[in-house]
């Protein structure tokens, strides 16, 4: 309805907007009623110059109230001032009519009710100020003129008493409105205070009183895309943990507060925030780009590394600072912040104190941080999809099993990240299980388990989740798939981390009907004792062995020995990385039971498999 009107009724702006709407309604409705009344008088042929003057004055004031509300200028002052002007005009014209004996039957009810109607929304101070005027005007009007039109003949004392009564009545009404206005103001003030407190708490870091991450980004978002000379500095204190450990959290808090104070004093900043822990960010603006980025970063860094004076003497606090200056290659604010973060990490790892973002040196780090930033959202929005790679029997080359893999599609990044890029990050962020449930559910829906098994990769961290097997069984049951159709593929890392617990979990999975495969055998330490320690059904021989076996005889013998070892341990021998007919012939001759690799089939999104494949 209004230009720039905000609908946020839960904010200070919301209160203002409500007043604007009220003022606009009062102005427009009052104007319309005024116009209708005037037209009626015109139709009845009773128009006098005084009536035209009165109605014209009202129209001007009401129109002004509506206009100011519409344009959002001096809304409150014009509304309240306008209503007082209407009130005064009403009384002046009422006396003028009476004096000129132009009063009518309705005059008395009008002087009783119109002032009340006009003034009821005024603030309490104005209402209280008008009470003496109202009392006096009512008393004079009624005692001098009021009863004449009603055809009532009262004695002077009767008329005096009646006018005092009406004047008292309207004064009490004004008083009641004033009390209501006080209550209204009180509620509004409390509401505004409450909202102010809430907003303050939600946007400010309680320890340093700097903005928090969300408020920092919100503030900068208002300036995005920025003009030239807009830069973000990302800071992380060095060795803050040992300081905390040695001198206690109180000292740590003091240091954080002092760093915040120094940041507050940095000139030409748009916003300063504590992003969390010992990380801070400053948005610097240098519109004319007077200083090169290196100079600005070095200057900011030197402000921060000055010794801090504490009760236990001076403390020198190291700071790593990354500086990224906006240019058009930054598509979003978060990308610029991550660029500053990447530069900061380089400064930290090289112990250089500060570094400015360099597209060539830091682009890999920026890509990693983009993945870190986007991965969770991708998982939730269904962009992490199930892919499968076939595993075939060497006896008839029938595909009897698929290995479940994850693929990131439609990432919105320059290039969709490959599993080698995002799986380690998912592991670091504790998202591997969530990723497994998402991709597994998709695969369980699509695959035909009468013809195929499904192999699932499980990391030691996933196994150590207390409810892993239960959750897995639950998911299988929900899709009516028997645990007997599932193979869990684990790497030798399960032996190195909490072996007893991992063996217990694998035994439970086996008891439920699942098979266990040791993945990538031959790529790591491949200790033979590990084969005895784990409850296994299958050995998957790492692809490096078949590659080397093609090149020299010694490696071919190692591959042969690995296959023989699996057979002698009564495990299924599956060779990974079979990429050619030659390699296939070689492993078939060695007695492998199963093969996997590009020659059998590349990984493909499960949704793209045709009916006969699944
Ligand atoms: N005193 C205090 N410590 C905090 C607060 N928030 C986080 N920390 C601690 O800050 C430390 C930050 O961790 P890191 O940045 O990894 O520690 P660091 O020693 O600075 O490591 P580097 O950055 O690699 O030098 C952790 O030990 C947190 O417990 C806080 O509000 N007050």
UniProtKB/TrEMBL annotation:
Pfam family, one: EAL
Chain ranges of the GGDEF domain: 228-359
Stretches that traverse the bilayer: 21-41, 47-70, 77-98, 104-122, 160-183
Domain EAL: 368-614
EC id: 2.7.7.65, 3.1.4.52
Listed CDD domains: EAL, GGDEF
PROSITE patterns: EAL, GGDEF
Superkingdom to which the source organism belongs: Bacteria
Keyword Transmembrane: yes
Gene Ontology terms for molecular function: cyclic-guanylate-specific phosphodiesterase activity; diguanylate cyclase activity
Residues spanning the signal sequence: none
Keywords assigned by UniProt, alphabetized: Hydrolase, Membrane, Nucleotidyltransferase, Transferase, Transmembrane, Transmembrane helix
Protein name according to UniProt: Bifunctional diguanylate cyclase/phosphodiesterase
């Amino acid at each position: 309805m209004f230009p720039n009107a905000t609908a946020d009724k839960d904010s200070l702006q919301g209160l203002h907007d409500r007043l604007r709407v009220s003022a606009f309604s009062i102005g427009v409705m009052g104007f319309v009623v005024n116009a209708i009344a005037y037209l009626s008088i015109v139709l009845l042929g009773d128009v006098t110059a005084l009536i035209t003057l009165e109605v014209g004055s009202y129209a001007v004031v009401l129109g002004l109230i509506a206009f100011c509300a519409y344009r959002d200028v001096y809304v409150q002052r014009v509304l309240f001032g306008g209503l007082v002007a209407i009130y005064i005009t009403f009384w002046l014209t009422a006396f003028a009519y009476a004096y000129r004996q132009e009063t009518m039957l309705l005059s008395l009810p009008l002087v009783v009710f119109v002032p009340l109607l006009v003034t009821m929304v005024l603030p309490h101070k104005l209402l209280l100020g008008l009470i003496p005027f109202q009392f006096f005007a009512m008393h004079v009007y009624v005692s001098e003129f009021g009863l004449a039109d009603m055809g009532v003949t009262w004695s002077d004392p009767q008329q005096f008493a009646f006018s005092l009564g009406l004047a008292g009545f309207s004064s009490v009404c004004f008083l009641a409105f004033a009390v209501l206005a006080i209550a209204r103001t009180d509620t509004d003030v409390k509401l505004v205070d409450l909202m102010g407190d809430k907003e303050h708490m939600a946007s400010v870091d309680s320890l340093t009183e700097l903005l928090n991450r969300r408020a920092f980004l919100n503030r900068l978002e208002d300036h995005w895309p920025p003009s030239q000379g807009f830069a973000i500095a990302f800071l992380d204190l060095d060795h803050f943990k040992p300081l905390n450990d040695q001198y206690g959290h109180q000292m740590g808090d003091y240091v954080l507060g002092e760093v915040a104070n120094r940041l507050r004093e940095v000139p030409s900043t748009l916003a300063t925030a504590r992003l969390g822990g010992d990380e801070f960010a400053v948005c610097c603006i240098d519109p004319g780009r007077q200083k090169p980025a290196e100079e600005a970063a070095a200057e900011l860094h030197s402000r921060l590394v000055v010794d801090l004076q504490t009760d236990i003497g001076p403390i020198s606090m190291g700071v790593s600072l990354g500086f990224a200056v906006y240019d058009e290659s930054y598509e979003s604010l978060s990308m610029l912040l991550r660029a500053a973060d990447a530069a900061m990490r380089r400064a930290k790892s090289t112990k250089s104190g500060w570094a400015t973002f360099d597209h060539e040196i830091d682009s890999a780090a920026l890509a990693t941080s983009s993945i870190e930033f986007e991965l969770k959202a991708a998982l939730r929005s269904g962009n992490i999809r199930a892919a499968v790679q076939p595993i075939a029997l060497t006896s008839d080359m029938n595909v009897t099993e698929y290995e479940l893999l994850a693929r990131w599609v439609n990432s919105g990044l320059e290039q969709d990240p490959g599993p080698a890029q995002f799986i380690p990050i998912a592991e670091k962020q504790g998202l591997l299980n969530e990723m497994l449930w998402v991709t597994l559910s998709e695969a369980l829906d699509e695959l035909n388990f009468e013809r195929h098994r499904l192999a699932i990769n499980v990391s030691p961290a996933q196994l150590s989740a207390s409810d892993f097997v239960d959750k897995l069984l639950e998911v299988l049951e929900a899709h009516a798939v028997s645990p007997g159709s599932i193979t869990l593929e684990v790497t030798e890392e399960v032996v190195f981390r909490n072996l007893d617990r991992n063996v217990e979990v694998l035994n439970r999975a086996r008891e439920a009907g699942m098979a266990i495969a040791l993945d990538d055998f031959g790529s790591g330490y491949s200790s033979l004792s590990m084969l005895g320690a784990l409850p296994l059904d299958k050995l998957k021989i790492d692809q490096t062995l078949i590659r080397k076996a093609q090149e020299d005889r010694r490696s071919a013998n190692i591959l042969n020995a690995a296959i023989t070892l699996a057979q002698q341990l009564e495990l299924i021998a599956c060779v990974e990385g079979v990429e050619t007919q030659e390699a296939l012939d070689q492993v078939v001759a060695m007695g492998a039971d199963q093969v996997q690799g590009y020659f059998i089939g590349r990984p493909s999104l499960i949704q793209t498999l045709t009916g006969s494949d699944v």
